[in-house]
Amino acid sequence: MDKIHGNAVQALSCVQSGHTLMVGGFGLIGAPLTLIDGLAEIDVTDLTVISNNLGEAGRGLGVLLRQGKIQKAIGSYFTSNREVGDYYQKGEIELQLLPQGTLSESMRAGGAGIGGYYTKTGVGTELAKGKEEREIDGVKYVFEPAIRANIALIKAHKADTLGNLIYYKTARNFNPLMATAADVVIAEVDEIVEQGELSPEEIVTPHLFVDKIIKAKKILTKAGVVSCE
Amino acid sequence: MDKIHGNAVQALSCVQSGHTLMVGGFGLIGAPLTLIDGLAEIDVTDLTVISNNLGEAGRGLGVLLRQGKIQKAIGSYFTSNREVGDYYQKGEIELQLLPQGTLSESMRAGGAGIGGYYTKTGVGTELAKGKEEREIDGVKYVFEPAIRANIALIKAHKADTLGNLIYYKTARNFNPLMATAADVVIAEVDEIVEQGELSPEEIVTPHLFVDKIIKAKKILTKAGVVSCE
Amino acid sequence: MSEKNDIQELIAKRAASELKGPCIVNLGIGIPTLVAKYIDDKNIHLHTENGLLGVADVEEEHIDPNRVNAGKLPVGETIGASFFNSAESFAMIRGGHIDVAILGVLQVDQTGVIANWAVPGKNIMGVGGAMDLLVGAKKVIVTTTHTTKDGTSKLLKKCTFPVTSTRSADMIITEMAVFKVVNRKLQLIELMPGVTIEEVRKKTEAEFIEQRIDNNENSFAGYIRS
Amino acid sequence: MSEKNDIQELIAKRAASELKGPCIVNLGIGIPTLVAKYIDDKNIHLHTENGLLGVADVEEEHIDPNRVNAGKLPVGETIGASFFNSAESFAMIRGGHIDVAILGVLQVDQTGVIANWAVPGKNIMGVGGAMDLLVGAKKVIVTTTHTTKDGTSKLLKKCTFPVTSTRSADMIITEMAVFKVVNRKLQLIELMPGVTIEEVRKKTEAEFIEQRIDNNENSFAGYIRS
Questions:
Q1: Which CATH superfamily does the domain covering A8-227 fall into?
Q2: Beta-carbon separation of A116 and B112 below 8 A
Q3: What ipTM, to 2 d.p.?
Q4: Residue D218 domain-assigned?
Q5: Contact C130 B89 (CB under 8 A)
Q6: Where are any strands of DSSP class E within C28-138?
Q7: Nearest CA-CA distance, residue D36 and chain A, Å
Q8: Using CA atoms, how far apart are residues A181 and A103, in angstroms rounded to an integer?
Q9: Per-residue pLDDT of chain A (229 residues; tens, 9 = 90+)
Q10: What is the CATH number of the domain that holds D205?
């Protein structure tokens, strides 16, 4: 079975309007910029996007925001794209804010067959309003449900031809978690290597989590996002 | 601060009677055999031991069982030591059986500030008796509380002098989880290397989890457990 | 080879023929372990819950005591294998990332529910990963001898031992026959070579459906092998 | 350097002096980020919640756009650093593995409760790791200017902005004074150089304890620096 696809649009053929998508990255760092470009090209709407941020103004997921493709966003820090507030004010996007630790933990739960869990984070704050509270061994926790997506778009550093992945520095962030929590996982990578080139002890995402792989055509450099075709 | 200790007994000075101990390993594979030997030498009783197995008859944790030091054991597969049943019949040990996935997940929760979680595993079985059941999105789950210990005794392959750890093949098993879920974590390692010798991308247990390190004096070989002093 | 071994190999070989790559397969202890040697599709990847994806056979000289399967037996690793901790391994299982689990059982009932971890009257001493595999694997194949040593059916109307999960297995393979579990009913789909339907009826306590094709006494729905 | 910068550096330097190795420290965005340059103890390890233990300064030529801190600013890595995913990073935070978190605030009240993520009337757009750090870090040090730009006290009787946690900070460091939070009460322990107790009283809405030592008007319990 060949997981390697020639381009983003081809790999994204499974994305449908109304789908929930997880998109990796902490801002633009570790974001699958080529796949996001592909999303911008295809005709899908009413997406729910689960991602820490919505990119920056007009960059990364910010492009999809401007296209009006995002119906709802679940994340922890939308502030990094100043346009999100404008769309929210106009009622053009629904937002769900989660503490960053809760966002990442809920993804892990979703990928691990855990229905939900109790976290200390947020107890007694506005973000816990309407959430079930429970005391365990004298400590207060709030219930958080697992989250999953139809599709995860992630960025890794290297893939082998089987689909095993390793990451690069803080571009790792949410990517390995999203790889576990979606029905279809599409990875954008800097480099594709032969089976056996990644050390079995070092592989962060084993291949059973990965469905499709494309090579990155846009990368983040010191000078900003550049094309590397 | 120097985390490296000269011998097991010295490193174990923090262990007290009545303590709850996590002990790594899947049977003898990845078990901290030198630290277990140290436990056999010191005068502590009424221990609660959290470990997948209680070693084998007279080997690994099986030695402590014979010494009568274990008041309660929490694990998933005691069958591998045929003597556990005898002690249980005589009322000399209390046993708590958890599915292996629940055992490992509860450790992770304990280390991650999660109070408890809902798992599908065990629903409708004898092991779920008395446990809270909850339906989430149409699926039944049981509640499992996090588990923690006073002390974790783990086995790793290499430590650097800061306390970063990497593991070796399937000797990894429960060790990285236990490293997160105890007040004091003591790691037994095959080799101690200089800071910087382990790749930052490859470190499995970052040093903030590790309190003490000793060098292994007993290791598992094809021929069985041998001394390597 | 003893008769017992012959039977186990027969069942294991039949189970292996159910596997089509690409897929991720977890093999339990006992007969399921034997399945490995009948797999020659490189797109079938074996997972063991103690923390390895890419289990391979190992020759005596390459045995590593720290590289074992769930039965603590030495195994090899494929090119492209990876190691991970127990929580990650069970996250794969519970999270639905394993396509097929092949498991041994003590009993299986006519709804496909299995019992494979405890015997009443004996100390309940071990469960391991059995319950996790039952709730998590997309497809569960049971491999078992048709009867116990004393000739009693292992395919029962109702399990008398504690069940492992409320979830039904999807297929049951014995040395006598192969059953599919469809809508919580056993459906005979195949007789093993030389076995008659009468023998299966005699040795099986569980009710099962014999859906004949073309009114032919020996053909069953799905009976495409002989 | 501007007066604003001077004030921030003063606060950061004072916060750095609270840190004694060995310890694991998480630095928030803003003034806390500046604390890094006043640390020269090799046993103080900096954690950033986006997935790095062992944050270091970085010189322009070594900037890597994929190695950043929680404020998305480029950082370096120490020898012995490690990278991990976001869930693992927050497991460290929530699980009690971070010794000290140094955080900026919008407001802090006289029980030590802080508000640092949302302003009423504006869109609530971001929370990041603030709530996790508050519940998880063993010790929380607040670094903040004593007043807002228009001169209003940031140390209030009660926060008017949404709070970040019900947990109190342990210490508050401003350009005017240092307070300890003991049993949910602010206790003045130090005046910054050149600041008088009268000035602090005037600029502080929150009630705080002045526990004088030796009846000396300028000595407070814990006042060991000048």
A1: Glutaconate Coenzyme A-transferase (3.40.1080.10)
A2: no
A3: 0.96
A4: no
A5: no
A6: 44-48, 52-56, 76-83, 100-103, 107-109, 114-115
A7: 19
A8: 12
A9: 599 999 999 999 999 999 999 999 999 999 999 999 999 999 999 999 999 999 999 999 999 999 999 999 999 999 999 999 999 999 999 999 999 999 999 999 999 999 999 999 999 999 999 999 999 999 999 999 999 999 999 999 999 999 999 999 999 999 999 999 999 999 999 999 999 999 999 999 999 999 999 999 999 999 899 998 7
A10: 3.40.1080.10
